[in-house]
Amino acid sequence: MQDASSENTSCRCCIAGGGPAGMMLGFLLARAGVATIVLEKHADFLRDFRGDTIHPSTLEAMHELGLLDDFLKLPHQEIRQGEAKIGDVTIPLVDFSHLPVQAKFVALMPQWDFLDFLAERAKRYPCFRLLMSAEVDGLIEEEGRVAGVAAKTKDGQLTIRADLTVGADGRHSLVRREAGFAPLDIGAPMDVLWFKLSRQTSDGDEFLGRIDAGQLLVVFNRGEYWQCAYVIAKGSAERLKAKGIGSLREKIAALAPFLADRVDALAGFDDVKLLTVAVDRLPLWHKPGLLCIGDAAHAMSPVGGVGINLAIQDAIAAANTLAGPLRGDGPLSDRLLAQVQKRREWPTKVIQGIQVLIQKNVISRVLGGTGKAVPPPFARLFIAFPALRRLPARLMGLGVRRERVTSPARAIPQAANLRD
Length: 420
Ligand SMILES: Cc1cc2nc3c(=O)[nH]c(=O)nc-3n(C[C@H](O)[C@H](O)[C@H](O)COP(=O)(O)OP(=O)(O)OC[C@H]3O[C@@H](n4cnc5c(N)ncnc54)[C@H](O)[C@@H]3O)c2cc1C
Known about the structure:
This protein is α+β, with helices and mostly antiparallel strands. The chain has helices at residues 20-31, 56-64, 68-71, 111-122, 174-178, 237-243, 245-255, 307-326, 334-368, 377-384, 390-398, 414-417; strands at residues 9-16, 36-39, 53-54, 77-79, 81-86, 89-95, 106-108, 128-131, 135-142, 145-153, 156-167, 184-185, 190-198, 207-212, 215-221, 225-233, 273-275, 280-281, 286-287, 290-292. It starts with 8 loop residues before the first strand and ends with a helix.
C-alpha cells in the first residue's frame, strides 16, 4: 500500500471509503485514466462477517471487465441452489442455474479477498492511489461546492482537493453527515447474529434456511465451516446475552440438529458478531462536487444478501456516467450527478420495497411465532413448479436494472503489464 503524504494533494476524483462501492469505482475510474485517490480508514481490508456474497450481477461485471477467470481462481464456494426448511417441510426456493449470465451462482468469498483483488488490479494504473489508514474527517467546501476532503493519516493531516468527491464510506457515512444529508429511516424488525461452526462433509453442502418455533437460521457452506446467521427480534440481543451463551447454543441445536454436536465451539458472545440491521435511503444523493453511493446512499436489509451487489451496481453506473467527463471528455456538470441518482434510485427502491415486504410478512411473523412452523400454501408451489425458483434467483442474483460496464478503458502501461 502507498503511504499517505502529509502534504496537500489533488486529483480529479477523491473517494472516501474502500469498501465494495469505493474500490469498484476507484478501479473503473483508474481504468478510464482518471486521476483517482481512494481513502480507507482501516489499515487493511481484514474484517470478518462483512458480507461475503458475490452475486451473479457482480460476477457478470467482472466478466465484462475481463477479470472473471482470474477472480474465480481465488478460493470461494458456489451457491447454485438454495432451500428453506420450514417446520418439517423442505422447500427448494432458489435456482440460479438458468440465469442468462456467465457465472450462474453466488460466489462466497471473504470480502477482503474481493477488495484486495480490486485494489491490486486498480494499482496497475499509475493514475490510481489507495491510501490506507486515512480517515476522512471533513469536507472542503468552497463557493457552494464540495472541493475535496480533509483526512487524518498516520503521518498527520492531509488535504485532498478534487473535482468530484464520492462518499462511499458506508452506512455510518461521515461524508453524508458533513454534507447535511439526512437518510429516510425505513426500519427493520430484526437484527442478525453471525457466527461460525465447523462443517463436516456428511452435512451436505447447500445454502439452507431453517425456520421453526419462532426462530430463523441461515447457514452458508464456507468449505471447512458453516457461516451462520441467526435472526433475532430488533433490540433483543442484550436479553439473549443475559440468558448466557448456553441458551443460544440450545436454540441453534434445536433448529439445526446436525449442528448440535459442535455448538459448544461457541465459548461466549465474543464468538458472535451482532449486525444491527438498518434500512434507509437518502432522498438526495448529491450536491455540487459530491456524490454518495453504496451503503452511504442506501443501507440495505440483509434479506437476499444484496448489499454488496447494489454497492457495485452504483459504482458501475457512476463510472459509466462520470468517467468520460472526469477524464476531460466533456464538462462534469451537476446534472450528471443527478443522473446517477436517478438511474440507481429506482432499483434501490424496488429492492428495498421487496425486502420490507419480506420483513413484514415473513420475518416478523416467524419471530412472533412459537409453535411448529407450517409453510404457507404459496411456498408449496415451489415444490410443485420448479420453474418458480427462477424468479427469486433472478431478483437476488441480478436485481433490477442491471448495469453493464460502458465506462471507457485505457491500456495498462507496459511496465505494469509485465507484472502479470
Ligand atoms: C455483519 C454484516 C454482514 C453483512 N452480510 C452481507 C451479505 O452477506 N451480503 C451482502 O451483500 N451484504 C452484506 N452486508 C452488507 C454489505 O457489507 C454492505 O451493503 C456493503 O459492504 C456496502 O458496500 P459499501 O462500499 O457501500 O460500504 P462498506 O462496505 O461499509 O464500506 C465502507 C468503507 O468505508 C470505510 N470508511 C468508513 N468511514 C470512513 C472515513 N471517514 N474515511 C475513510 N474510510 C471510511 C470503511 O472502513 C469501509 O471500508 C453485511 C453487512 C454487515 C455489517
